[in-house]
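Supplementary Note 3. Input sequence used for the single-chain structure prediction.
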Amino acid sequence: MGRLTAGRTPVDLLEHYVDRARGSWRSSSAPPPRLRPMTWPDYHPRWRGQVSGRMLEPALYDTGRLGPWAARLRRPPVLGLPIPLQEATVEWRPSYTPEKFDAAAVQARVAAGQVACGQALIGALLEACLTAGIEPLLETRAVEIAMSGGGADQQVAGLVVEHGGRRRELPPPP
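The predicted structure, written as discrete structure tokens, is reproduced below.
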């Protein structure tokens, strides 16, 4: 991971992320995002350890799981059809081999409310928040981190946000 960050991220922070990331989903009752391996070539073919298919992408996600929040899932500016990258770049390659493109499958996915790529990942993360009782604040901007204490005892006391022209402080999670 140090190579991927070009040395800009301290090694101890990367190790902390790896140590904590695996267990971070265990406290959620929502299912974790389903990820699929891609057979896309490695981003860095000259690096030691290079293999084809190291990239992961979110599986298709059913927005019906979000209830009324499904309408709030932002449409992407590109890649708006429910076609995972594996299909778009490896299997179907509609730009190069349009005869492989399965329009009926895409239409069925649209009708079923399925999304792909970033929308699939955000949908799963939003579902986890909602399942945990966390309702996102939309059109809300973080403007300041509220601190308490002083010197070495200083710690985060909340987040100051702005919504509808008004500021309010949100407490940190328990």
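The chain has a mean pLDDT of 86. Residues 31-136 form one domain.
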